[in-house]
Amino acid sequence: LPYRDVFDNHTPLFHMLSAPLVALIGETPRILVLMRLAMIPFFAATLLGSFLIGRRLFGRRAGLWSAILCGLCPTFFFKSLEYRTDVLWTALWILAIVVLLGEGLGVVRGFCGGLLLGACLLVSLKTVMLLSALLIASAALLVLAPRPAAASRQSTLAYTLSALGGLALPPSALVLFFAARGALRELFYCTVTHNLLPGVGRWGTSKRTALLLPILALLLCAARVIMRRFPGDGVRVAFLFLLAGSQYLLLSTVWPVHTRQDLLPFYPLFTVLLAGCLLAHRGAGAPGGERRWNWIAPRAALVPAILASLELAVLPGLSPITGRGAALQEKPLAEVLALTHPDDYVLDLKGQAIFRNRPFYYALETMTLERMARGLIEDTIPERCVATRTCVAPADIGGFPPRTRRFLQDNYVVVGAWRVAGRILDPAPENLAGPLAFDVVIPARYAVVSGRGEAHGTLDGRAYDGPRDLGPGRHVFIPETGPGPLAVIWAQAAERGFSPFGETGEVL
User: Which residues, in sequence order, are CB contacts of 84 under 8 Å at separation 6+?
Assistant: First the structure.
């Protein structure tokens, strides 16, 4: 059960939807590509939402260019085609805005929009930031827009209450589900408590928070200008402007950790405004034939095509898989599947081994590492590796806490993209042909190998004739051959063709 048995600091909808597809695909390195392909419907849904918002506010042509510019934006394109919660999160958010910006303030519309917002919360609690932006934009319109009639106020109240009801429904169902299984405390810790840590990122020494109110005031002034100059849908345009601006402002000033994927919900709204500015032309629409949009020169209509062409030109050069495919990304997973059985434990940072159990409960992400550094979470990774007989860990150990890094350096050897339990056997300088003493920490089957293949000699007083179970403690190997590189490694790695030595016999 998530949270109780497996750590996850995201709300669970994305992973619950992914689990059946992962089970269907099975254990294969190609899952990295196949799960990215599964993101395409969410990517398409976001672009559809951008088109619908643009069409609603500025016309069909502006909607089309909004979707094109958004889809070809390099950051949006690449991050939306990675397997990550943010892709579904963005799609649900944009579709919610499509519903909320529709005609009228009906109760059904409000409930459906709220339901989509509630689903956003089930994907990521970063939705709190988006809801804050939505609240800012809505409150600003209440202040800036003309005071509605009594009947309109009643419909607005009913609309708001129905939206709040829809918003509350998915989180309530989630709470009841985990409460019924006795995992409510774990759910709350992983998704809320774990992520609230004073002093992290911009919650520490950042002075950007001082910019929040001044920039917000500028956004309000700009929204007021939009509403005064443009009749018809000016209120909705001002709302979209305030929503996009508030999203970006909150992310840039008060949100503690800022990553590129956090901007995914911003791009579809920004490109709507950009395309609207460039393409919304003068035309009849206001009473008396008044021209509605008269603020951009006709030649500006060429700008979207130029921007889209530039985006299309730079995308191949920025692609992480251009010229080498996905082989580089698939290699670590292919190696760990070749190294291990399904019931073997593998130490990684955040579950990169995908199909293997981890010995340590917490994912080693920003908040976990910060809590470890402050002593709020104890680094028991070495003890857990010993207890679970974890013999495989990443070759790159830069993301681990210091104590674990030392443990991995001392007790594992690199055999490719991963390292396995073992040690390089270095002879004493004064006796190059003498006994080689080494310590075993993780009890397992070990093999002694050389740069030329299997080693020969005596292990713990008995002739070495193949892999042997070794318990914790000091062991001694006396080689029969002359000096040369030797290592003791997890036998399963040696039997499956992995070695700590390169083709020329040197240590990797």
Answer: 39, 261
Q: What is the pTM of this model?
A: 0.88
Q: How far apart are the first and last CA of the chain?
A: 39
Residues 6+ apart with CB under 8 A from 272: 50, 53, 54, 57, 58, 62, 63, 66, 240
Q: How far is 463 from 94, CA to CA, in rounded Å?
A: 69
Work out the number of other CB atoms within 10 angstroms of the CB of residue 260: 11
pLDDT for residue 153: 73
Question: Cα separation of 19 and 1, whole Å?
Answer: 12
Amino acid of residue 173: A
Name the DSSP class of 341.
Answer: -
326: amino acid identity, one letter: A
With CA atoms as reference, report the closest residue to 102 among 239, 282, 295: 239
User: What single DSSP character describes residue 343?
Assistant: T
pLDDT (tens digit per residue) in 38-59 = 999 999 999 999 999 999 998 8
d(CA 4, CA 403) in angstroms, rounded, equals 26
- As a whole number of angstroms, the distance between CA 272 and CA 280 comes to 11
Tokens of 228: 């005064």
Q: Over the stretch 6-49, which tens digit does the pLDDT of each residue have?
A: 999 999 999 999 999 999 999 999 999 999 999 999 999 999 99
The percent of residues above 70 in pLDDT, for the chain, comes to 89
